[in-house]
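In response to the reviewer comment on reproducibility (Comment 2.3), we provide here a single inverse folding case reported in full, input and output, so that an independent group could reproduce the run without further information from us. The structure tokens appear first.
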């Protein structure tokens, strides 16, 4: 009889321990489910942020592409303007030289005219 009581006591203790383990496991399961929900929400939030950042990267890549095109066009216009300036400088130099030649001829003709007037004035 003592053996039966001891056996029943062991079985009750094992049952109580099993219930305690089951309750602990259920608590851990609830915590795990809550953690899973929180992690899923965080994942969703991070996915949204990643999507927005990818859109921003795409927009900035497009903007960079447009800026590169603008830079190329500006560079071409600057090169054209530089060629125009060089051409204008050459034209100016040509005109200055021509002016100097014509001015020298004018002064020569003026001198000859003055000499002619002086020689005619003596007549």
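Designed residues, in position order:
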């Amino acid at each position: 009889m003592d053996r039966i009581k001891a056996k029943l006591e062991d079985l009750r203790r094992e049952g109580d321990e099993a219930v305690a383990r089951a309750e602990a496991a259920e608590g851990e399961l609830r915590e795990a489910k809550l953690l899973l929900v929180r992690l899923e929400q965080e994942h969703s939030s991070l996915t949204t942020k990643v999507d927005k950042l990818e859109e921003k990267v795409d927009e900035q890549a497009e903007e960079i592409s447009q800026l590169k095109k603008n830079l190329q066009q500006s560079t071409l216009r600057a090169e054209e303007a530089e060629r125009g300036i060089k051409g204008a400088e050459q034209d100016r130099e040509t005109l200055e030289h021509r002016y100097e030649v014509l001015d020298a001829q004018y002064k020569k003709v003026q001198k000859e005219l003055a000499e002619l007037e002086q020689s005619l004035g003596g007549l």
